[in-house]
Design brief:
Chains A, B: It holds the Pfam family PseudoU_synth_1. 2 copies of one chain form a homodimer. By secondary structure, chain A is an alpha+beta fold. Chain A folds into 2 domains: 103 residues, Alpha-Beta Plaits (2-Layer Sandwich); 137 residues, Alpha-Beta Plaits (2-Layer Sandwich). Chain A is built from 5 helices and 11 strands. In chain A, strands 1, 2, 3, 4, 5, 6, 7, 8, 9, 10 and 11 form an 11-stranded mixed beta sheet that branches. In chain A, helix 3 packs antiparallel against helix 4. The longest helix of chain A is centred in the N-terminal third of the chain and has 13 residues. Chain A is globular, with a radius of gyration of 19 Å. Chain A starts with a strand and ends in a 5-residue tail after the last strand. At the A-B interface, strand 4 of A face strand 4 of B.
Chain lengths: 251, 251
């Protein structure tokens, strides 16, 4: 069996998230159906991680094992011609070692959380950013809060679902808040993110920006290991999975 | 009667264009209905010009005459709360002199035509740009062609509908082709544009970029005053009305 790795982008607006679930209509379902029409065989794909309903991706990665002899350089176009236009393979496929696993082999992930701070929402990005017209967010305070979140921490207070994770310790390598005239973009890069972790960090930062939470309160939130200590979970549609990185050998 | 001027943005994807027409589902219809629910009176709005089905606007302008006493600073939020999220008032309303007419008073308009030149289309902009993955477009040739289009010309060869225009002479003040890694953006600013003029210029430029039309052929196209001489009409969804400018007194 060959192990094929692909990178996709999707506008998650009309899907029930990445991962197959009883309600159907997921990115995974759509891709597995496209692969089936191409190869004639139902094939399970392995994503780098799930994304929730209405969450987007610029660079989600998945892999799958197949007997198909289709050349790697043909996969992207062949699959794209079978996918709806809000899901797109965005790089040539690669044949990877058998041990490569999109989730377990991932070394770093980057997410973006976008906030439109203009008085009126942007019609062209309305499904891709949270609209927060007022009050004006205190960006300096938000950046100070971010500094407390960088590094290795137990992020129990910043996740909502503990069931399937042995450890809540994760490392955030980079946490940057970019400011434009009518937009704030939070970029987080880490070795992994717990369920809802980016959205809870974004929601907490928004409360910091509103003056409801002091930046100095962040260390206590981390130490308390209790979801009730952190801010709200920011709405899903502002979140985009930007990139997943693997070790050089698997790249 | 007061004369109220407003600026709106819209994602034109699901509408049959700006202007009211028998098939309904136009931006104008939606706005007039919103104004009616606000004031209780059916009110005809005057747009700066029509935009076709699937064409977008960042800065379309309209005005209307009303007896309503609603304060100008309340109009934008009041109307936005009654509009679908793909149509948005993006500036505070202004009360303008009775003689102000969004179409006749317009001095300059700017349109953008966007072309995605990446191998795969961008899922987030798929409704806002034309996808042209190959062959690679010759940007230098396209810019040379644009220089021939700048200035005052009879644009008969670059319009498809002559019925309601007395003159086909228009002036293009500025014609700029911006190049990004996977995107070309054509910005045209002029004192007015004939029906389909920007899309025919874009389609002609794409043929120039493909080497099908020489830049030096543009002057002959203009002089020939015949639609058959120019290139094809580029697809509607790549077009966005960016801005409409008025004289200082009416601004």
């Amino acid at each position: 069996m060959r192990n094929i790795r692909m990178k996709i982008a999707y506008d998650g607006t009309r899907y029930n998230g990445f991962q197959t679930q009883p309600g159907g209509n997921t990115i995974q379902d759509i891709i597995e159906s496209a692969i089936e029409t191409l190869t004639g065989t139902r094939t399970r794909i392995i994503g780098s991680g799930r994304t929730d309903a209405r969450v987007h991706a610029e660079g989600q990665v998945f892999n799958f094992h197949t007997d198909s002899r289709i050349a790697v350089e043909r996969w992207a176009l062949a699959l794209n011609s079978r996918l709806p236009e809000d899901i797109r393979v965005v790089e040539s496929a690669a044949e990877v070692p058998d041990a490569f696993h999109s989730r377990f082999s991932a070394k770093r992930k980057t997410y973006r959380y976008s906030i439109c701070t203009g008085k009126f929402h942007d019609v062209f990005r309305r499904n891709f950013e949270f609209h927060h017209p007022s009050p004006k967010l205190d960006v300096a305070a938000m950046r100070e809060a971010l500094r407390h979140l960088q590094g290795e921490h137990d992020f129990t207070s910043f996740t909502t679902n503990h069931a399937d994770e042995k450890s809540h310790v994760r490392t955030i390598y980079s946490a940057v808040l970019k400011e434009e005239e009518k937009r704030l973009e939070l970029y987080l890069t880490g070795n992994g993110f717990l369920y809802n972790m980016v959205r809870i960090i974004a929601g907490t930062l928004i409360h910091v920006g509103q003056g409801k939470i002091a930046p100095a309160a962040i260390p206590g939130m981390l130490q308390g290991r209790n979801r009730l200590l952190a801010g709200p979970t920011a709405v899903a549609h502002g979140l985009t999975l930007i990139n997943v990185e693997y070790g050089d050998a698997e790249k």
